[in-house]
Amino acid sequence: MASANTQPSPGARRRLLVTGAGRGIGAAVAVMAARRGWDVAINYARDAAAAERTAEAVRAAGGRALLLPADVADDAAVVRLFAALDAAWGGLDGLVNNAGIVDVAQRVDEYSAERVQRMFAVNVFGSFSCAREAVRRMGTRHGGRGGAIVNIGSVASKLGSAGQYVDYAAAKGAIDVFTVGLSREVATEGIRVNCVRPGITDTEIHASGGQPDRAWRLASQIPMQRPGTADEIAEAVLWLLSDAAAYTTGALLDVTGGR
Predict the structure, then answer these.
(1) Of the residues 69, 72, 225, 242, which has the fewest C-beta atoms closer than 10 A?
(2) What's the domain range around 126?
(3) Is residue 4 part of a domain?
(4) In the 8-state DSSP scheme, what is residue 247?
(5) Residue 208 confidence class, pLDDT cut points 50, 70, 90
(6) For residue 64, is it within any domain?
(7) What is the pTM for the complete model shown?
(8) Residue 240 has what pLDDT?
(9) How, if at all, do strands 65-69 and 38-44 pair?
(10) Quick check: is 3 in a domain?
(11) Gap between the Cα atoms of 155 and 150, Å rounded
(12) Which of helix, strand or coil describes residue 133?
């Protein structure tokens, strides 16, 4: 059976791709990974300035940083992203499927078809495309040396987000199933696949849905009475990427403050 150890040759740094790494959880993962021995490819869709700030922080933490613009909802753009990664670094050792969107709070009977299609295109189809390309490079079946994939889900997949983001919750439910299925598919090919499901976290994503104060406004619904931080989510992601989690695959790890 192939080993799930993602350790490259002695002295080499591991190579990690984080999608949607310009801000929030993605940026926190990128910087924390650099501190722990990874070089980080920073994917972003539009905000080049934010991505460059993440890159500067990665370099300050001791890692190489590679900026890779692409909308993960565009499969052809994902293919080009991985080709650029190959040209620069010759492959990768880890993927964090973090890119995701929310929309304004609405009921399902108020949704447009375009809203739901975009929600799944970014949050689900983009994760499939990136994982496909990562498996082709990391899997021992394809001549790779193994690796780890961490999908960023949400506790919304359990709670449903009624009256807010049922489409987002449904998309994250798909990520749960995707995680379990892919983990079993590649378990003998040196790749571990896990999912971190954050609860309410104080990041910029709430502002993009028109509710910049949402995290603290809902704090009373959280047993710990506060939202999480991006760094607290990143800690869980980095553990799942590490060899300390070598026997962990197919896991859905809730980081929710008890919610």
Answers:
(1) 225
(2) 14-255
(3) no
(4) T
(5) low
(6) yes
(7) 0.91
(8) 98
(9) parallel
(10) no
(11) 15
(12) helix
Structure tokens at 242: 């590490």
Here the tokens at position 138 are 């990391």
pLDDT confidence tier of residue 6, bands split at 50, 70 and 90: very low
Q: Rounded to whole angstroms, what are the CA distances from 236 to 50, 66, 220, 225?
A: 23, 23, 23, 20
pLDDT at 204: 65
Sheet containing strand 252-255, edge to edge, reads 65-69, 38-44, 14-18, 94-97, 147-152, 191-198, 252-255
Measured distance CA(21)–CA(99) in Å, rounded: 7
Phi first, then psi, for residue 40 (nearest 5°) are -130, 125
Any idea which residue has 């506060």 for tokens? 226
Task: Say which residue the tokens 């709070």 belong to.
Answer: 105
The CATH number given to whatever domain includes residue 81 is 3.40.50.720
| CB neighbour class for 9 (10 Å; exposed up to 12, middle 13-18, buried from 19) | exposed
CA distance 201 to 4: 31
Count of domains forming the chain: 1
C-beta neighbour count of 221 within 10 angstroms: 12
DSSP state of 44: E
Residue 173 Cα distances to 178, 186, 229, 257, angstroms: 9, 20, 22, 20
158 is written with which tokens? Answer: 């359990």
User: In angstroms, rounded to a whole number, what is the distance separating the alpha carbons of residues 152 and 193?
Assistant: 11
Q: What is the pLDDT of residues 33-63, one digit of tens each?
A: 999 999 999 999 999 999 999 999 999 999 9
Residue 102 Cα to chain centre, angstroms: 15
Q: Is residue 121 part of a domain?
A: yes
247 as an active site residue: the answer is: no
Choose the catalytic residue: 44, 111, 165, 168: 168
